[in-house]
Amino acid sequence: MNHTTRIATPAPDQAGLAALEAQVARDLDVLNLPPNNWVPPMRRDGVRVLDAVVVGAGMNGIAAAGSLIFKGMPNIAVLEAAGPGQEGPWCTTARMDTLRSPKTLPGPCFGIPSLTFRAWYVANFGEESWEALYKIFNRTWQDYLGWLQRVLKLPLTHFSRVTKISPADGLLRLTVEQPDGTRTLLARRVVMATGRAGAGGLDLPDFVDRALFPDLAALAPQPIDFEALRGRSIGLIGGGASAFDNAATALERGAARADLYVRRAVLPQVNKGRGSTGPHFHHGWDAIPVAEKWTLNVYLYDQQAPVPHETVHRALRQPGFHIHLATPTHAARREGDEVVISVGGGNPREVRHDYLIVATGFAVNPAHVPELAEFAPDIARWIDVIGDVPPGLRRAEIENFPYLGPGFELQPRDADAPPELRHIHLVNYGAHVSHGGIASDIPGVVVAGERVADAVLRSLFVEDFSAIRQALVEYDEPELLGTPFYVPKAGASD
Fold first, then answer.
1. 340: which strand partners?
2. Distance (Å, whole) CA 258 – CA 355
3. CATH number for the domain formed by residue range(s) 210-269+306-358
């Protein structure tokens, strides 16, 4: 059976969705969510200061923003560079048919059953459709996330790209590009929920000639005009899921041939990432000693993730699909209107294609995050904390991951770092070495949102403790008013 073949989905049931939204309102009311704002208001030079800005409105941004609001911190803003329905990769550059994760994962639901993906799906399409669903289609997941944004009433502004974050005398100043111009915001904390590419961009190997771009080559997680590749020969570098997805997509859109050049002689077989999920990994990962955490990350990095079997079958259904194992790529260059790729181990050769797709994943390095440029030299990375490790345990690919605190906060490299650096929380792929998969994969998204909100709450409570304590002293609601035991304050009228 082809599990990814789309089963006809009935039209959304508006009455069912309305009933679910009424249930959500009841659940939040019963749980007294959201609570009142407890953070003392702050202004700087007459300008309102936000308690937090969440950069990104995908699943991690939703989880972080919702958790902040549910902990009594509604004075926030959520800024999203893309337009509505385009947040994250699901309907833009993610080219698989379905999510990799099973449909039973609850999503960023904050522990509330009526906010789960399953509750939303059944309300829209019915129980029978849920039972028939194999895995979640990308568009369906995007629609669910959009519903969460709306039902949670997140203070979300689309088409708002944060281009710079600067220290501002104990605060953070954000430069934000919007359609009507550039504006600045002041915030006490910033949560960067910017996805896989948000911690250093895309990985482009040195052996790929930059002159190939943009007309003869693209990176896999970028927009690609597949219609323009009809009848063409496509070369792909990489053997992961993204390489298979892009090859299948190109062939389904009419490409004549797609050749994958894979360094490995055998594809990875076991998904160790799936084995490293669950409450113990999600909640215990950050408690592991630094040395043990490093060796675990090295192990998982070396194992790599296999291509999902659904993705393999999708590619194999295309007669123009060809895979070349044990065929490393040494160089890729332009020659006229063709791409010339030098490949091969013991039998090196050159192959020619009309177009090249580089599917070599994501890079992580704080120095390559444009909005963090003013902080980058002072951000601690894992290479700064692991010390002298045996050569067999050095992995350049993960040494530049930022070394994060327990609430995803950036850590200073030395005592000269600006103190505002600790007020930036990296809830994106850059957190993977410090916190495991909770900031990059669906199974742990709720844990990530809760953890960063807890960290922001604790730090603001400490900073504002004097004002909070004074408000407690001034709190004067007499409990015994109307009883025989009420004693009015001296000078107070009855």
1. 333, 352
2. 10
3. 3.50.50.60
Domain ranges of the chain: 14-200+364-466, 210-269+306-358
Amino acid identity, residue 260?
Answer: L
Q: From first to last of its 494 residues, what are the pLDDT tens digits of the chain? A: 334 444 456 678 889 999 999 999 999 999 999 999 999 999 999 999 999 999 999 999 999 999 999 999 999 999 999 999 999 999 898 899 899 889 998 889 999 999 999 999 999 999 999 999 999 999 999 999 999 999 999 999 999 999 999 999 999 999 999 999 999 999 999 999 999 889 998 889 999 999 999 999 999 999 999 999 999 999 999 999 999 999 999 999 999 999 999 999 999 999 888 888 888 988 898 889 999 999 999 999 888 889 999 999 999 999 999 999 999 999 999 999 999 999 987 778 999 999 999 999 899 999 999 999 999 999 999 999 998 888 899 998 899 999 999 999 999 999 999 999 999 999 999 999 999 988 878 888 999 999 999 999 999 999 999 999 999 999 999 999 999 999 998 766 65
Under 8 Å between Cβ of 199 and 364: yes
210-269+306-358 matches 14-200+364-466 in CATH topology: yes
Helical packing angle, 59-70 and 138-151, nearest 10°: 20
CA distance 463 to 40: 10
What is the fold, at CATH topology level, of the domain defined by 14-200+364-466? Answer: FAD/NAD(P)-binding domain (3.50.50)
Residues 54-84: b if buried by 16+ CB within 10 A, e if exposed: bbbbbbbbbbbbbbbbbbbbbbbbbbbbbee
Write down the pTM of the prediction: 0.93
